[in-house]
Structures are given as structure tokens and as C-alpha cells.
Amino acid sequence: MKQKLIVIPLDERPCNYNFPYLLTKDTEFEVVRPPLSLMGNKKSKGDIDGIWEWLKEEAKQASGVVIAIDTLLYSGIIPSRLHYDAKETLITRLNQIKVLKEKYPNLLIYGFNLIMRNPKYSSSDEEPDYYEDWGSEIHRYGFINHKISLGIASPEEESELYAINKRLPKEYLEDYLNRRKINKEVNLAFLQLIKDNVIDFGIVPQDDSSPYGVTAVDQQAIKRFMYDHSIGHRVYMYPGADEVANVLLIRMINQLKGVTPRVFIRYTCYSGGNVIPLYEDRPLHETVKYQVIACGGVVVFSERDADLVLIVNAPPSNMVEASEQHNNIIEYDAFRNLVEAVHYANYLIQTLGKNVIFADVAYANGADLALIKLLSSQDLLFKVSGYAGWNTSSNSLGTCIPQGMIHHLYGTTKSHLDFLSLRYTEDAGYCSVVRSIIRERDLPKLGLSVFLVDGERGSISTIVKRELDAFNRSVVKDETYAIEIEDCYMPWNRTFEVGLATKVLKKKE
């Protein structure tokens, strides 16, 4: 009989709701998640009380639970930025975890609670309505105030802040800052549960972070609590969000199995680890180390001592968006050696029998097509232990490392191959190619926008599937396997992400 593990996802999008389940399908663990009917829908809240009741029932027979605190308190990542709940209401909900631990003291509880983000741009797609017109000003308000507090703001920035204060509506700023203050108090209460051994391990992810601003100021308060109470070994804080359930789930599996995977890290260019990725606040190599240890692994310094070799396809200097890679940016060609990296991977797999993971984080929001083609030419696409290249570098790292660790434990299962097919179709096909085609060619013709298409399963989803099928046939070439797309839809009725179900089919001899 399989051990039951519970996952309370960050929201209902496939990356949060499906990935942990898909990664663990062919293991000795049964991963369960709340019914979709209880989850929210983007800005619409789900049934918070219903999810709590579901959790309490499932916990009776479970070995562990991975909890997105934002879901149990606010109903998900977007509602956490929009709510009007009093701090007392939120803390009361949070403290139900104490009751759960008291009732089931052997239940392993891992949790993660986001620091509220502060986007640089003006858009209300995932923020309060007023962020459509005032988002950039709200960000600059926090950014410049932070620099002033550190004594490093320029006279030009101080003049800019003065102008912002004159035109930014006070009620919008107060609403935003009040919600941030309440959410920070929840962050601290979450840390208190870790200090009190109610939650066994935690992560405070930094969603779309940067070195300065209101988010960075909140981070300082979190760090101070962690330092003052000596819990830095039991709660980590680093960039990320949508991948954290994967990370905590594999950490839990490793702990339950009593194993510590050894990971050797290799970069495609010497400078890559020092780059601060887009949407993050620190050099890539520091985040990579955090991702490995958060997954329950340890970094080693020789591939021969390693269970897994993590090859990080890193940007050589400033990171750019994946949609720009067709511009032949000279640094990406001259300051990296992808051919050597793939040659090295082939040697590790074929000669040394090592498990190799590719973290494809050279670009933001999509895969490196040159890497995909090289892996295809060497017939390595379905021989690697893990691959991801979507959204932020942390999103990708927190997807491919758990997959690699599961492959290390359970080998080349059907679900492993299917998940690779999903990554190539989504990360390379959709994020790096098809999304731009749809936005530039089809949305204008149909009178649609990137934030509003014609439904989850309208004409856009039909076009996307057709284009992805063509991409897989022309780019994701493998001697043994072909990819079949079983389902394609547009979560949140926009073009940023795609919902897919894929599987591999063995080619006829």
C-alpha cells in the first residue's frame, strides 16, 4: 500500500496543481490534492473552509503534508494580493495547523509562505485594479524610499519620489501598504510555527524579487526573525514561487526514505553563476545551492562522488527573455559552450552511467532552443534525468532538480518520460516559440489580447495545439519516442501559460 502525501497547491494552475502529482505518479507515494472544485480561479476565491475540512480528513491516513500557506489563508497566490481580511482572521486560520499537529503529532508538515511581490510594471492582471494605472509608481515609491533609508538614493531619485508623492492617490498607496503590512505579520506568524516545531520545515519564497523596494524591506524583517530565533537551518528564503511544492515534496520523500542525494553542479559558462537572473535578487549560483539543499540534497565537488550532475545552462552576462533569442545576441554565442556541455552530458550518461539534469535557465520565460536541438542531435532528450526551462530560473530549478532526484530513486518510468515530454512541449514549444506566434499573428486578427483570449478551450487553444504538434515534429526529434498532446487549454484565459497533457509514444521499429 502506498504512503499518502498531501499537497495543498499554491493555486489551480497546472504548474502548481499538476506538477507535484505528475512527478510522483510512479513512486511508492500516493500524492493527493484538494478537488479543483474547492480551489479558486485566478482572482476569485475558492472554498477556504472546504479545503481545510478536506485537509483534516485526508490527514488521518497521511505521512506528510506540503502546505501552501497562501492557499489555506487567502485562497491562493493572487487572492493574497487582493484580500481585505483582518490580521486576526488570518492568524486564526493559520493556527489551525497547530490543531492538526496536536491531533497527528507524527504527521510531517512542510509549508511555504510567499513574501508579497511588488511588480515594476503597471498591470492589474494579477494585482489590485488600481495597479493598472499606478503600479509603476507604487513600485518606484518603495524602491526609492528603500534607497533613501540606506543613504544611497541619488538626487534625481529623490526628486522623482517627490513627484510621485504629489500625483499618486493616497488611498491606493495606503491600501497597498496596509495589505503588505498584514501579510508580513502572517509571514512572521508562519515563522513562529516553525520555531515552535509545529511546522517541521519551511520556505519563504521571494516572488519576482529585486535588491531594493518594499519586498526587500519585508525580507529584512523575515531575516531578522530567523536570525534572532536561530531557525535559519529549518526555513530557507530565496527567489521562487510556483515550483516550491515540487521542492518540498521531494524533500519529504528523501527524508521519509532516509536518503540525501549528492549533486555536482556544472555551468555552461564560467561567468553564468555570477549573473543575477531577471526577476531575482541574487547571483544564480547562490540560488542553485539553495534549491539543491531545499530538495534535501547536498552539493558535492566531483561528478564521480555525485548521484546527480546538475548542468546549469546559464546566461553569460545579462539575461534576456527567451522570445529574444532569435536576435543572435553575441554574448550567448561567444561566451558559452553549449556543444561542450552536451558532449559532457553524453559522456556522463553513456560512459559513467550518471544521472544528468539540465537546468535550462539561460533565458527568462522559456527554453534555449539551441540546447534543445543539441540534445536532440545527440539523442539525449529522453535520457536525461530532469529538464526544465520555464518562467524564472528558480521555477525551472525547482522543477528539474526534483524530477532528477525522483529519477535517481525510481529510474526511467513512464511518468518520467511523460513529464520530459511535457517540459519540451511547454518550455521550448510554447514558451519560446508558439506564445510569440499567437500574440503577434492570431490575437490581433481575432480582436483578442494577451490578458483575455476566447476561453480556456476556444479557438486560441486549438491553434496552440496545432502549432505545438508541428514544433514537436520539427524540433523535438528522438530516435525512440514521439510526443502526443492529449489536451491543450489556456488557464486563466490568457496567453502567459498553457495547460497541457502530453505523453510519449514509442516509435515502431
3D structure, described in words:
The protein is an alpha/beta fold and 509 residues long. It folds into four domains: 3-118 and 173-256, Rossmann fold; 131-170, no CATH class; 259-412, Rossmann fold (3-Layer(aba) Sandwich), CATH 3.40.50; 414-509. Helices cover 46% and strands 15% of the residues. The protein contains 18 helices and 15 strands. The protein has helices spanning 14-17, 19-23, 48-58, 69-74, 87-94, 96-103, 131-149, 155-167, 170-195, 214-228, 244-257, 284-294, 330-334, 338-350, 369-377, 393-410, 414-446, 459-474, and strands spanning 3-8, 29-32, 62-68, 108-112, 201-206, 235-239, 262-267, 298-300, 308-313, 320-321, 355-360, 363-364, 386-388, 481-489, 499-506. A six-stranded parallel sheet has the order 2-1-3-4-5-6, with helices on both faces. It has a five-stranded parallel sheet with strand order 8-7-9-11-13, sandwiched between helices. A two-stranded parallel sheet has the order 10-12. Helix 12 packs parallel to helix 16.
Features:
5-stranded parallel sheet, alpha/beta, globular, Rossmann fold, 509 residues, 4 domains, 46% helix, 6-stranded parallel sheet, 18 helices
Strand line-up across the major sheet: 2-1-3-4-5-6
CATH architecture verdict of the largest domain: 3-Layer(aba) Sandwich
Largest sheet: 6 strands, parallel
Determine the number of helices (DSSP H or I, runs of at least 4 residues): 18
CATH topology of the largest domain: Rossmann fold
**Helical coverage, percent range:** 40-55%
In short:
The protein contains 18 helices and 15 strands. It is α/β, with parallel strands linked by helices.
